[in-house]
Each structure stands twice: as structure tokens, then as C-alpha cells.
């Protein structure tokens, strides 16, 4: 026969065990949420860093890297030649026509807003600098861009000179995180994460992307070009990751700049 005192102790013990079980489950859920949040933050940070240093945002570096948020940083490659002398009409608009293996991608550049950038791209294009070069990097999380303009196809090449940042305030006031939205269809300069470190690498935004206002926005992609980019993005990266070479190879067969 179980006495009333024994019964009370049994009930108390069962209540204690239930409380401990609930507390353990709460701790497990808290750890799980923290792990999920940590993983999500890591993905965004890794993607962004990859852009600045090794990809979308680097141009003339001899190590690889991306944003203020993508790969470990790299130093700009030393200048080996001066930037081209100004030879464009600063009041005109120019079209950069990229004939690629993934379709034609055209974008308009406004020399009044980005004269140094437009002048550099026209000078390079006139020399065939972009012909037969690969768009070496696609990002599919955090930021959504295809990066091109590296003659080496590695994220480390450039023209041997750098140009000044321009038009950085055109996308509005940064939010509390210090970011602005680079809208889908934007073309912007990649860099090494340092001011005025742009060279020949640029990135094509296929979906609105939050970034620090550190990358010169200098072009707007036409509808057909944006559709071609979206198809490349839909296929993802070659290794199935969120940052890497596109699964659908994109080679610029010919890059030409003409005045409108």
C-alpha cells in the first residue's frame, strides 16, 4: 500500500522530471535557433566578402576575394600604367554591347555621372580587352550578381591601372547597416574593398542586392540582357554552392562601346 506521504513524493518527483524535460527542450530549441541564425549570417557575410576581395568586388588584385562582404581581402595589384586620357564626350550616353555565349547583354552608361568609368571602359573595349573573357563569378545568396571583366578569368586580373569611384550617392541614403539597394539591372564596378581601386572587373545585378555604397554604379541593363542573366542565375553555380563559377558558362565573345 502506497502511503499518502509516498504518493506526494512521487507526484513531486514526476513534476520535477517534467519541469526538467521542458527546460531541456527549451534549451535545445534555443541552441537550434542560434545555429540557424548563425549559419544564415555566415552565408551572407561569406557571400559579400567574396565579392569585394575575390569576386564581385575585386578587380586588380593578386589574391582573390568580395564586399565588404566576400572573400578574404586582397591588395590591389600595383599600377603598371596610367589610366587612359579622357577621350569621350562627358555629356553623352554610351552603350556597352556584350556578345556572350549566354545571349546579348547591353547596358547604357551615362558619361555625365561616371566620366572616368565610361572613358576607361570605352578605351578598353576599343582595344578588344573584354573579347573572349569569362564572367567568372556568380552569387546566388545575400547578393545576386554575375561578375565579369577579368582577362584572367580568376578574379585577380585587371588593366594595370585603377580609376576613381564615382556616383556613389546615387542609390540613396544607407540604412542602419550602412547598405543601399543595388537594383536588378544595375551594372557596377568591382573593387578590392579600398576606395578608388576599380579596374576592369564589373558586376551585373540580376536581383535587388543590399551592399555598401562603395561600388560605382555606372550602367543599366536592357530587358533582354536582364532576362539572359536571370537564366544564367537559375542554373546556379558549377559546384552547387552560393558563390562560384556559373554552371552555364558565360564568355564575352565581343565587348564594344558606342556613343548613343
UniProtKB/TrEMBL annotation:
The keyword Signal does not apply. It holds the Pfam family Pro_isomerase. Residues 66-85 have a biased composition (Low complexity). Residues 1-31, 62-85, 237-260 are annotated as: Disordered. Residues 100-257 form the PPIase cyclophilin-type domain. Keywords: Isomerase, Membrane, Transmembrane, Transmembrane helix. PPIases accelerate the folding of proteins. It catalyzes the cis-trans isomerization of proline imidic peptide bonds in oligopeptides. This is Peptidylprolyl isomerase. It comes from Streptomyces roseus.
Amino acid at each position: 500500500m502506497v502511503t499518502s506521504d509516498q504518493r506526494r513524493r512521487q507526484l513531486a518527483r514526476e513534476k520535477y522530471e517534467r519541469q526538467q524535460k521542458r527546460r531541456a527542450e527549451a534549451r535545445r530549441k534555443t541552441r537550434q535557433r542560434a545555429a540557424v541564425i548563425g549559419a544564415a549570417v555566415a552565408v551572407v557575410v561569406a557571400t559579400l566578402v567574396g565579392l569585394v576581395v575575390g569576386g564581385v568586388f575585386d578587380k586588380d588584385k593578386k589574391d582573390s576575394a568580395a564586399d565588404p562582404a566576400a572573400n578574404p581581402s586582397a591588395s590591389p595589384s600595383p599600377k603598371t600604367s596610367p589610366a587612359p586620357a579622357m577621350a569621350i564626350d562627358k555629356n553623352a550616353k554610351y552603350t556597352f554591347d556584350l556578345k556572350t555565349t549566354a545571349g546579348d547583354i547591353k547596358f547604357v552608361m551615362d558619361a555625365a555621372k561616371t566620366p572616368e568609368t565610361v572613358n576607361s571602359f570605352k578605351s578598353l573595349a576599343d582595344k578588344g580587352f573584354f573579347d573572349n573573357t569569362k564572367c567568372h563569378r556568380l552569387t546566388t545568396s545575400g547578393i545576386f550578381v554575375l561578375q565579369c571583366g577579368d582577362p584572367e578569368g580568376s578574379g585577380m586580373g585587371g588593366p594595370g591601372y585603377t580609376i576613381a569611384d564615382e556616383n556613389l550617392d546615387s542609390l540613396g541614403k544607407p540604412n542602419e547597416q550602412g547598405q543601399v539597394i543595388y537594383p536588378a539591372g544595375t551594372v557596377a564596378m568591382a573593387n578590392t574593398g579600398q576606395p578608388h581601386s576599380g579596374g576592369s572587373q564589373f558586376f551585373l545585378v540580376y536581383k535587388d542586392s543590399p551592399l555598401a555604397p562603395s561600388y560605382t554604379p555606372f550602367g543599366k541593363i536592357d530587358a533582354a540582357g536582364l532576362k539572359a542573366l536571370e537564366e544564367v542565375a537559375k542554373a546556379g553555380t558549377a559546384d552547387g554552392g552560393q558563390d562560384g563559377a556559373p554552371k552555364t558558362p558565360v564568355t564575352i565573345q565581343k565587348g564594344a562601346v558606342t556613343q548613343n
